[in-house]
Amino acid sequence: MKASFHKEVQDLYQKLIDAWNRRDAQGMSEQFADHGVQIGFDGSKLIGQEEILSHLKPIFENHPTAPFVTKVKDIRPLGTDAAILYAIAGMIPPGKSDIEPTVNAHQTLVAIKKDGAWCIELFQNTPAQFHGRPELIEEMTEELRQLLL
């Protein structure tokens, strides 16, 4: 059961990341619970599928967003129908082939199982700037670069 639980939560996270990388606002918003919350890199707080969709749609239509490179670091159950996932993420800017370290992030996802299906209750994308500790930025970037090989 534990392996299945982890796979289901990881699959939910991957659907979210894949939708971002496809620039698919609808696909991203559909992964959230009715009142799910998304907190973006800039601190924007969006509540519910409609608000998330209306925020993301113009971003994808008007900006060349960078795709994510991610690595799930931990998935922990929070009871039987909830879990927390922690991942690290980097981005490859359009026209580039390498991760841009200044936009590395920690990503946290809280998932709930409702009516037999997993959905996102909270997704937070927090800058990993490590003020005054450049070695940690490089360490995270190198860990993500390994996924590009």
CATH architecture assignment name: Roll
Q: Briefly, what CATH class?
A: Alpha Beta
Gross morphology is globular
C-alpha termini separation: 32 Å
Uncertain segments are: none
Helix content: 25-40%
At the fold tier of CATH, the topology name is: Nuclear Transport Factor 2, Chain: A
Number of helices: 4
Order of helices and strands: HHEEHEEEEH
What is the number of beta strands?
6
Average pLDDT confidence is 94
Order of strands side by side in the largest beta sheet?
2-1-6-5-4-3
Which band does the percent of strand residues land in?
Answer: 25-35%
Oligomer: single chain
Largest sheet: 6 strands, mixed
Task: Jot down its keywords.
alpha+beta; 6 strands; 4 helices; globular; about 150 residues; Nuclear Transport Factor 2, Chain: A
What is the compact description of this entry?
This protein is of the alpha+beta class and 149 residues long. 35% of the residues lie in helices and 35% in strands.
Protein model, in words:
Pfam families: DUF4440. The chain is α+β, with helices and mostly antiparallel strands and 149 residues long. The chain has one domain (2-148): Nuclear Transport Factor 2, Chain: A. 35% of the residues lie in helices and 35% in strands.
